[in-house]
Amino acid sequence: MHPDHPHDQPTTPSAPILPTAPSALSGVVVADFSRVLAGPYMTMLLADLGADVVKIERPGSGDDTRSWGPPFADGQATYFLGVNRNKRSVALDLGTPEGLAAARGIVDRADVLVENFRPGTMERLGLGYEEVRGSNPGLVYCSVTGFGTDGGAALPGYDLLVQAMGGLMSVTGEPGGPGTKTGVALVDVVTGLHAGLGVLAALRHRERTGEGQRVEVSLLGSLLSALTNQAAAHLGAGVVPRALGNRHPSITPYEVFETGDRPMVLAVGTDRQFRALCERIGRPELASDERFATNTARVAHREELVEALAGPLAARTADAWCQELTAAGVPCGPINDLPGAFALADRLGLPVRVPAETAGPGQVAHPVRFGATPASYRSAPPRLGEHTAEIVAGKPPVDNSVGGL
């Protein structure tokens, strides 16, 4: 969360795109002091739902991810672009009385504040919850930390560090191998989702009572919650889960198999699906074998089952198997790269791409589809300080119908 300062950014304005219908959070103002991923991802989701998110950044450098490249698109780091659309940027030096006063003015007019500084930083600036609630008692104040605000306050909240210390790496990777991180900063993303849920719940509470409150979420707590079945196995049965590669600790066959041309995933979760698999591969006797007749038995005899399935599956191509097994109700699929994954979504008619002219290059659509209050893509990720003058002056965003500062 605290890398070196990024380089200065150009100031070419981004073109605002107005929504076609009011979104669920239209009129909600978010003072966003967060940087990098967990906080910005969450505030982007709120912005997609109509909130006016005011991104408060350091002059000359801004959000750390502005310099996290390559790759770049239109001269900007794609990392930054991926989590900052629909926001307005104000560049303020919080180390000066003028910058701090401007920030305090934004906070006093906001419905939500989001920050992910190290614990104690906002208090030292005079922007802690107790300091600002007096002038804005309805404020929902969301703090995102790495390891909490008490014993873990001194630990830096890097996703990789939390994956390691929080146990995720111990159950990821090949058996007996070193711990492996996930291919994306999954802990940051999950934490952003939990933080967004907490903010929405707090806004609902405020709607009923008029009261704001502090909302806290940590990377470690979010990860432990996300470990779900692995955490339950440990807490409920004393199991210490270990890495199983692509296998599942409680279900089989639920892993990768080689076919005649490339790997394929089987995700057989029920006895009915297993019987259908055995029929389709020409080995119906496996379904009645006492070693494989139930999932519990299959897990106990995993190696024998994998060996029995390997030969038949290697006899045909992945596409042939996927077509036949899917028709039979057996969950399976190829291992796609990202072009393949997006092509699949396109074939299925899922609206996962945001046109570049709407919110800038490389934007993945908001994943929730609403019947009455759709997500909206109003503007590309802002240039650093692009909206400083209008925000400090208290002007609303271009689309006045959504409210705002």
Question: What's the gist of this structure?
Answer:
The protein is of the alpha/beta class. It has helices spanning 38-48, 78-81, 97-108, 121-125, 129-132, 159-165, 186-209, 219-226, 228-237, 271-280, 295-300, 302-313, 318-327, 338-347, 356-359, 388-392, and strands spanning 29-32, 52-57, 72-73, 76-77, 87-91, 112-115, 140-145, 213-218, 254-258, 263-267, 332-334, 353-354, 363-364. The strands form four sheets. It has a six-stranded parallel sheet with strand order 5-2-1-6-7-8, sandwiched between helices. It has a three-stranded antiparallel sheet with strand order 9-10-11, with helices on one face. Strands 3-4 form a two-stranded antiparallel sheet.
Low-confidence stretches: 1-19, 400-404
Structure classification: alpha/beta
DSSP strand tally: 13
SSE pattern: EHEEEHEHEHHEHHEHHEEHHHHEHEHEH
Overall pLDDT, averaged?
91
Q: What Rg do the Cα atoms give? A: 25 Å
Amino- and carboxy-terminal Cα gap:
28 Å
How would a textbook summarize the main sheet?
6 strands, parallel
How many helices?
16
- Strand percent estimate: 5-15%
- Range of helix content: 25-40%
- Strand arrangement within the widest β-sheet reads 5-2-1-6-7-8
Shape: elongated
Keywords: Transferase
InterPro entries: CoA-transferase_III_domain, CoA-Trfase_fam_III, CoA-Trfase_III_dom3_sf, CoA-Trfase_III_dom_1_sf
GO molecular function, one term: CoA-transferase activity
Protein name: CoA transferase
